[in-house]
Design goal:
Structural class: alpha+beta
Oligomer: single chain
Largest sheet: 6 strands, antiparallel
Number of domains: 1
Number of helices: 5
CATH topology: Aspartate Aminotransferase, domain 1
Helix content: 25-40%
Strand order of the largest sheet: 1-2-3-4-6-5
CATH architecture: Alpha-Beta Complex
Number of strands: 6
Strand content: 15-25%
Length: 137
C-alpha cells in the first residue's frame, strides 16, 4: 500500500460519518486523479492540463476543501457551493494559517453535509473542472 492509500485508510478509519469514503469514491469515479504525499495529511484531487496538476478538491480529517489556486478565480461558483451547507458546517480560512492557507473554502464532513458535498461535486466541481479543460466523465 502506498502513501496515498495509507492516508485514505487512516482518514476513513477515523471518520464516523462514512463521508470520507463516499466522497473519495465519487471524485475518483469521475476520473479525477488523487494523491496523498507521505509528508501531508491531505488528499488532493486533481486533473492534469498541459503537464500541470490542477487541484479541484481536497480532504483531510473531517474537512472537505476547495484548493485556493483553482477556486479563488471562480468566486461565484465557490460561494454557490459554500451556500449549500449551513454556516455552522463551514470552517474559516482567514487568517490563512497552516492547512487552511491553501484553501478557498472548507466544509465539515459529517452526516448532515455528505449529501450537500456530493451535489457540490456533481453540480459545481465537475462542471468547472471540465470548463477548465479537464477530460473527466
Amino acid at each position: 500500500m502506498g502513501a496515498k492509500e495509507e492516508l485514505l485508510s487512516s482518514l476513513v478509519a477515523k471518520d464516523t460519518s462514512g463521508g470520507i469514503q463516499l466522497i473519495h469514491d465519487k471524485l475518483v469515479r469521475h476520473e479525477l486523479k488523487w494523491k496523498g504525499p507521505s509528508n501531508s495529511q491531505t488528499l488532493l484531487y486533481f486533473f492534469r492540463k498541459n503537464g500541470k496538476e490542477i487541484g479541484v478538491a481536497a480532504m483531510r480529517q473531517g474537512i472537505f476543501s476547495f484548493p485556493a489556486p483553482f477556486w479563488r478565480t471562480r468566486d461565484t461558483f465557490l460561494r454557490e457551493a459554500l451556500n449549500r451547507v449551513a454556516s455552522y458546517s463551514l470552517i474559516g480560512t482567514e487568517p490563512a494559517i497552516s492547512s487552511s492557507q491553501y484553501s478557498a473554502g472548507q466544509i465539515r464532513i459529517n452526516q448532515s453535509t455528505i449529501d450537500s458535498i456530493e451535489s457540490i461535486i456533481e453540480e459545481i466541481i465537475l462542471p468547472e473542472s471540465r470548463a477548465a479543460g479537464a477530460t473527466i466523465t
